[in-house]
Amino acid sequence: MYRVSQFFRALVARVPKRELDLLSEYLTPSQLELFRRMPRCDQRHGLDVFHALRKEGYHDHHLLAAALLHDVGKIDGRLQLWHRVLVVLIKAFWPQLLDRLARREPRSWRYPFYVHQHHPELGAELARAAGCSPVTVELIRRHQDPLASSPLRTHQDELLVALQKADGVN
């Protein structure tokens, strides 16, 4: 049911100007340009993750910038809504197929699957080039990494857990 709801939210995603105006407090002009290059549904998702973190009491600028830009690695991948639906279905029924479908050939029909699989690394590089802090870059790079169950975590790991939690429910 969650995925069905997510699909319909993506179809009707809106990003009001008043929300975009808030972002200059967290993103530089070049980082804001990256955010604006994302499809509207990814912008909405980033804003939802951002708002969820703020609601939970997080004010760390590195974390909030990562929330806004964590899916920026998808911008040049030609990922359409049907790719996203297919990825969800493949992950549910045949997860190994995604790695076999993914090809790092930008002209290939398989490239969007590569971008989906590797968007954390691609996004981290875009964020680094746009001047994001090393902490923000690493949060973006690691936002889909499983964390060890060790109770001893660095502050960055704690931020990552918060990002992953907010991402998972939005």
Structure notes:
With 170 residues, the chain is mainly alpha-helical. The chain has ten helices and no strands. Helix 4 (40-55) packs antiparallel against helix 5 (61-69) and helix 5 packs across helix 9 (134-142). The longest helix is centred in the C-terminal third of the chain and has 19 residues, at 111-129. It is globular. 33% of the residues are buried. The mean pLDDT is 86.
Oligomerization:
single chain
Query: Largest sheet, if any?
Result: none
Shape annotation:
globular
| Helical percentage | 55-70%
Please report which band the strand proportion falls in: under 5%, 5-15%, 15-25%, 25-35%, 35-45% or over 45%: under 5%
By DSSP (H or I, 4+ residues per run), the number of helices equals: 10
Class inferred from helices and paired strands? mainly alpha
Poorly predicted parts: none
Mean pLDDT: 86
What is the alpha-carbon Rg in Å?
Answer: 16 Å
User: What is the first-to-last residue Cα distance?
Assistant: 13 Å
Q: How do the helices and strands line up, and which of them pair or pack?
A:
Elements: H1 2-11, H2 17-22, H3 29-37, H4 40-55, H5 61-69, H6 81-93, H7 96-101, H8 111-129, H9 134-142, H10 155-169
Helix pairs in contact: 4-5, 4-10, 5-9, 8-9
